[in-house]
């Protein structure tokens, strides 16, 4: 019997020992990850507040928070803005731009490739507070670099086009992931097949459709699911506009913060959080199903 | 001495890798556990080492019952198939590792490692990491590490299987000489019958968790106890032809051979090694030769393997260099007296 | 392909790359120039070189302290995550634990589902009731809980790739469980441990939402929060302080990224960053 066939020896880490090894991690995960998720459900059914009477003695109000949210103009606006944000910045922006960069750079070598990749990556790895301020500076009404370049002095991007601003910002911020994922995916496309298509006279679009896409279908789906999940939960836009002006860029994460933390309506905020949680669950579940069907697992 | 009594190892799921096994291995003996993959030989070795806990039965090493002892208390050294040299330690640290566990002072164990290394011609390599060594060097370092702790017994798991063919022969000779010099009881696992024949004082052929045959290499080679052993041992497979014993003769493959005493009438399996028959193109005078037509001739280097098409059966014969007939020739295979084996119900019943 | 089409394609690709470079470089230019500019303005310009802006940092009551806070929270979380994840991953990799794969799947699922955004209310409530508001420990525990599942997952991969024969060999030579761990397992998976440590530090270093919610006291706030307050709270932003601080605060993350990807060929794939 080769060692690979021999079942792993349990002598050193026996069942009991292994439990002792795993428990500390499980406790921490349980208290600070699982429990909060479950608690959200309960809190969402109460009128819990940060201050005042309902802070001391919260009452269970059932589905009242949900009914109120659905009837609330501000919530519905926020939901619609979130859809715009996710579709615009992630699905259209990051995925398309990321693929385009990966495609153009695929068989290039040398400094141009490293510099481009480096800049795109830098936008991704810098702390959110820093990049938020970089964009505030870029878009500033009076001295902003963008206005200086475009010769549009006094144009208030963040005030007049807040959604457009955070969407473009998030494309800039998050394209790196899509670029790297598609870059890796394109390496798996057999060059001989591309050459065959090119010899047959296929245009770039035909090559993409007939040769490249069938090979990277799985990657595209993975990419879209992950960046949707992340963009849907991204809080960085808060540091740019804080949801303003007048809630015109108040995507759901910012809405929850404004309602629950600034507004003090913890119960109501938890109810909205729960909706976010459900959407996350659906996306993550789809992602894991996808990974399992492809027989590989990668941390998300 | 290593003694196993009624040793059984059952894995969850009910697989019996070792099945009620009794075995005694003498002091200083070089002992081979031979069998195809999945026969339980590696599990048996790991159970002796203490890496697997037996389901039932006892293990004694040097007269001490070690069944319940952890691996480190059994005073054995094991060389793994992948050598398991620690990649983050240099050769000295690897060889000295068992001594480090025994709290031997650093200077002493470094000296000891150097001494062992020189014995295994590794002195030049003491500062290297395992990744900087060839396969053969790695194997010798693994041996040196086992030697350095002066155990009561060595346990080798396929010690030569990770080497390429040419190196394997060299390493085999080296291993045998080392074991002779040290005189330490050695149990090794292999699926390669030639390795077992070449190295071992005694061989246990295993199949499905049991020992099918136990004996010296020549016993196992000359008189395989079952057709399984017969077909497993030997570099060219043994001819196994169905026949019938009746009226004092053995009818097999179109030939009539004299039936040895004590073999009752009935169906029989006739076994003949290709090396134990002579091929001739003229009809032999003696009775009991297999007549056939030469179908295939394979060059083995110093000899040829001739496949003879007899009535309804194929028979293979090894002929010396230069004596091979061209394909299509009529030829006779004459079994050497006393070298053919007769099996009935998969047990050896006599030789002819 | 006709020569004209070929030429057009080349020009098109070059133009596209130029646009991409411009788009990604433009916001970053300010970070490269302003910290060294004697008169930093919000507009990117060629700096009048000075290091005075970094001196201005020393005068700011919160700037350097916040970096220390970032360090405490990042290293605390990294230590906790590496220790707990290593223990769990080792046991999960080596022992027959029923339902192990299902457990890993569920943990992984949870870590991507229960984001700071979705759980900010209960996390705040939990910290309040456990008296963890305004403590480093609160931030460390909250962030570690979110990082652990992915850390366990990655480390288990590392452990699975390490043959058990190393450990078994040491055991046959008489090493105790502790010795096997110290002499063999930890050195063998050290690259994995380093990766997880750097990954955790980088994650916590950049985190904004959790410390923003859990810390009220500016003396405890990490760099992410202090930087945010520097440009949002009160009066004209001190651009000299902001620019120098931004650079100082960004550098460790960039260095860590380069270190990990150079040393271990590790790409921050699959959300390793978040």
UniProtKB/TrEMBL annotation, chain A:
Compartments, as annotated in UniProt: Cell membrane
SUPFAM superfamilies noted in UniProt: MetI-like (SSF161098)
Protein topology in the membrane: Multi-pass membrane protein
Protein keywords: Cell membrane, Membrane, Transmembrane, Transmembrane helix, Transport
Keyword Translocase: no
GO biological process: transmembrane transport
Domain of life: Bacteria
Membrane-spanning residues: 21-42, 79-106, 118-138, 150-172, 266-288
PROSITE patterns reported in the protein's UniProt record: ABC_TM1
Principal cellular location given in the protein's record: membrane
Domain ABC transmembrane type-1 span(s) in chain numbering: 75-287
GO cellular component: plasma membrane
Protein family: Belongs to the binding-protein-dependent transport system permease family.
Name the UniProt record assigns to this protein: Sugar ABC transporter permease
Automatic annotation (TrEMBL), chain B:
Keywords (A to Z) from UniProt: ATP-binding, Cell membrane, Membrane, Nucleotide-binding, Translocase, Transport
Signal peptide: none
Domain of life from the UniProt record: Bacteria
SUPFAM superfamilies: MOP-like, P-loop containing nucleoside triphosphate hydrolases
InterPro entries attached to this UniProt entry: AAA+_ATPase (IPR003593), ABC_transporter-like_ATP-bd (IPR003439), ABC_transporter-like_CS (IPR017871), ABC_transpr_MalK/UgpC-like (IPR047641), CysA_C (IPR041193), Mo/tungstate-bd_C_term_dom (IPR008995), NA-bd_OB-fold (IPR012340), P-loop_NTPase (IPR027417)
Record-level GO cellular component terms: ATP-binding cassette (ABC) transporter complex, substrate-binding subunit-containing
Pfam family, one: CysA_C_terminal
Residues covered by the ABC transporter domain: 2-233
GO MF: ABC-type transporter activity; ATP binding; ATP hydrolysis activity
The protein's name: ABC transporter ATP-binding protein
Organism: Microbispora hainanensis
Phylogenetic classification of the source organism: Bacteria, Bacillati, Actinomycetota, Actinomycetes, Streptosporangiales
UniProtKB/TrEMBL annotation, chain C:
UniProt cross-references to Pfam families, sorted A to Z: BPD_transp_1
Chief location of this protein within or outside the cell: membrane
Transmembrane region(s): 71-92, 104-124, 136-155, 192-213, 241-260
Domain of life: Bacteria
Topology versus the membrane: Multi-pass membrane protein
Keyword terms: Cell membrane, Membrane, Transmembrane, Transmembrane helix, Transport
Membership in a protein family: Belongs to the binding-protein-dependent transport system permease family.
Protein name: Carbohydrate ABC transporter permease
């Amino acid at each position: 019997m080769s060692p690979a066939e021999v079942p792993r020896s349990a002598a050193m880490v026996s069942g009991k020992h292994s439990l002792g090894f795993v428990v500390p991690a499980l406790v921490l995960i349980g208290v600070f990850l699982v429990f909060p998720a479950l608690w959200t459900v309960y809190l969402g059914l109460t009128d819990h507040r940060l201050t005042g009477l309902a802070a001391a003695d919260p009452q269970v109000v059932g589905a009242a928070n949900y009914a109120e949210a659905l009837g609330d103009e501000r919530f519905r606006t926020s939901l619609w803005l979130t859809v715009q944000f996710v579709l615009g910045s992630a699905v259209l922006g990051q995925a398309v731009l990321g693929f385009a960069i990966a495609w153009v750079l695929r068989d290039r070598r040398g400094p141009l490739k490293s510099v481009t990749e480096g800049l795109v990556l830098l936008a991704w790895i810098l702390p959110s507070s820093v990049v938020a301020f970089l964009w505030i500076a870029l878009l500033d009404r009076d001295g902003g670099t963008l206005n200086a370049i475009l010769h549009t002095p006094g144009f208030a991007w963040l005030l007049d086009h807040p959604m457009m601003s955070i969407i473009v910002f998030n494309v800039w911020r998050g394209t790196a992931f899509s670029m790297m994922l598609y870059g890796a995916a394109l390496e798996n496309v057999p060059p001989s097949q591309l050459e065959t298509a090119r010899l047959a006279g296929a245009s770039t679009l035909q090559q993409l459709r007939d040769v490249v896409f069938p090979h990277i279908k799985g990657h595209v789906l993975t990419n879209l699911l992950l960046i949707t999940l992340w963009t849907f939960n991204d809080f960085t836009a808060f540091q740019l506009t804080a949801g303003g002006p007048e809630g015109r860029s108040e995507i759901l994460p910012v809405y929850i913060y404004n309602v629950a933390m600034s507004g003090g309506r913890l119960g109501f905020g938890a109810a909205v959080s729960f909706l976010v949680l459900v959407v996350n669950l659906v996306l993550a579940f789809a992602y894991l199903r996808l990974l399992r069907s492809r027989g590989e697992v990668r941390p998300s | 001495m290593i003694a196993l009594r009624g040793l059984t190892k059952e894995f969850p799921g009910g697989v019996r890798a070792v099945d009620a096994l009794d075995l005694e291995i003498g002091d200083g003996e070089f002992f081979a556990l031979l069998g195809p993959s999945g026969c339980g030989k590696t599990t048996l070795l790991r159970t002796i080492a203490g890496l697997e806990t037996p389901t039932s039965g006892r293990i004694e090493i040097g007269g001490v019952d070690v069944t319940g002892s952890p691996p480190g208390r059994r005073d054995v050294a094991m060389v793994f198939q992948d050598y398991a040299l620690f990649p983050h330690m240099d050769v000295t640290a690897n060889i000295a590792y068992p001594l480090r566990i025994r709290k031997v002072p650093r200077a002493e164990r470094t000296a000891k490692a150097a001494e062992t290394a020189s014995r295994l011609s590794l002195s030049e390599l003491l500062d290297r990491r395992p990744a900087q060594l060839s396969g053969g060097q790695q194997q010798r370092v693994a041996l040196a590490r086992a030697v350095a702790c002066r155990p009561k017994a060595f346990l080798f798991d396929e010690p030569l299987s990770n080497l390429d063919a040419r190196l394997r022969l060299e390493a085999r000779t080296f291993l045998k000489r080392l074991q002779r010099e040290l005189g330490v009881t050695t149990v090794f696992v292999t699926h390669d019958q030639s390795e077992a024949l070449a190295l071992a004082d005694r061989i246990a052929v295993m199949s499905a968790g049991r020992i099918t045959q136990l004996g010296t290499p020549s016993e196992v080679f000359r008189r395989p106890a079952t057709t399984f052993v017969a077909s497993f041992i030997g570099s060219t497979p043994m001819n196994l032809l169905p026949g019938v014993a009746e009226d004092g003769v053995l009818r097999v493959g179109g030939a009539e051979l004299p039936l040895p005493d004590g073999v009752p009438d009935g169906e029989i399996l006739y076994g003949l090694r290709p090396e134990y028959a002579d091929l001739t193109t003229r009809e032999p005078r003696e009775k009991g030769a297999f007549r056939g037509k030469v179908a295939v001739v394979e060059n083995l280097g110093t000899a040829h393997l001739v496949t003879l098409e007899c009535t309804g059966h194929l028979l293979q014969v090894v002929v010396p260099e230069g004596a091979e007939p061209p394909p299509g020739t009529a030829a006779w295979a004459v079994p050497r007296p006393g070298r053919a084996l007769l099996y009935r119900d998969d047990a050896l019943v006599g030789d002819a | 392909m006709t020569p004209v089409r070929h030429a057009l394609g080349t020009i098109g690709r070059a133009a596209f790359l130029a646009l991409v470079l411009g788009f990604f470089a433009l916001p970053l230019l300010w970070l490269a120039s302003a910290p060294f500019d004697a008169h930093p303005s919000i507009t990117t310009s060629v700096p009048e070189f000075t290091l005075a802006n970094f001196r201005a940092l020393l005068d700011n009551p919160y700037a350097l302290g916040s970096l220390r806070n970032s360090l405490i929270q990042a290293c605390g979380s990294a230590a906790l995550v590496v220790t707990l994840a290593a223990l769990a991953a080792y046991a999960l990799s080596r022992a027959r634990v029923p339902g192990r794969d299902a457990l890993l799947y569920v943990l992984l699922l949870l870590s991507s589902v229960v984001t700071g955004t979705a759980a900010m209310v209960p996390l705040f409530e939990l910290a309040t009731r456990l008296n963890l508001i305004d403590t480093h420990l609160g931030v460390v525990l909250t962030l570690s809980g979110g990082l652990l599942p992915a850390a366990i997952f990655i480390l288990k991969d590392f452990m699975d790739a390490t043959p058990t024969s190393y450990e078994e060999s040491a055991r046959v030579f008489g090493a105790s469980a502790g010795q096997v761990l110290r002499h063999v397992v930890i050195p063998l998976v050290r690259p994995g441990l380093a990766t997880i440590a750097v990954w955790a530090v980088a994650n916590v270093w950049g985190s904004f939402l959790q410390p923003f919610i859990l810390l009220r006291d500016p003396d405890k706030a990490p760099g992410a929060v202090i930087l945010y307050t520097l440009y949002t709270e009160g009066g004209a932003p001190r651009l000299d302080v902001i620019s120098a601080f931004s650079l100082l605060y960004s550098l460790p993350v960039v260095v860590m990224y380069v270190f990990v990807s150079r040393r271990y060929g590790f790409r921050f794939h699959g959300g390793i960053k978040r």
